[in-house]
Amino acid sequence: PIAHIQKVYPHDFVGYDFQYEVKEKGYVYILPLGYANGWGRFVKSYAFFENIYLEQAGTISMDYTAYFSTQKIKKDTILELVSLHVPIEQLADYNRISIYEILTRLRLKRIYL
């Protein structure tokens, strides 16, 4: 679930070494999920919620991942990180790793649909 929401503006920076520059007014959503949980230090990933795609904002940290959207989403909302809307094949392809590597690293509760 979304743990924190930060309103951001163009030219704000997010993440380690200010690697992500905000291009338009919107929101950064912080999820309590990082590489310590097995969510790799992906170069590129997306989250999904009710027809809204959120792009990864900056580098994934040990305990947190940030996503950006221009749309307002409520705190505690659960975002889809791997689903029919966010295919694991696409995540693996973007980051040049195997699907197996992504799935076996995760130390999370899984919800199978």
From TrEMBL:
One example GO MF annotation: alanine racemase activity
Keywords: Isomerase, Pyridoxal phosphate
InterPro entries xrefs: Ala_racemase/Decarboxylase_C, Ala_racemase_C
Cofactor(s) essential for the protein: pyridoxal 5'-phosphate
Pfam families per record: Ala_racemase_C (PF00842)
The Alanine racemase C-terminal domain, residue ranges: 1-113
UniProt-recorded name of the protein: Alanine racemase C-terminal domain-containing protein
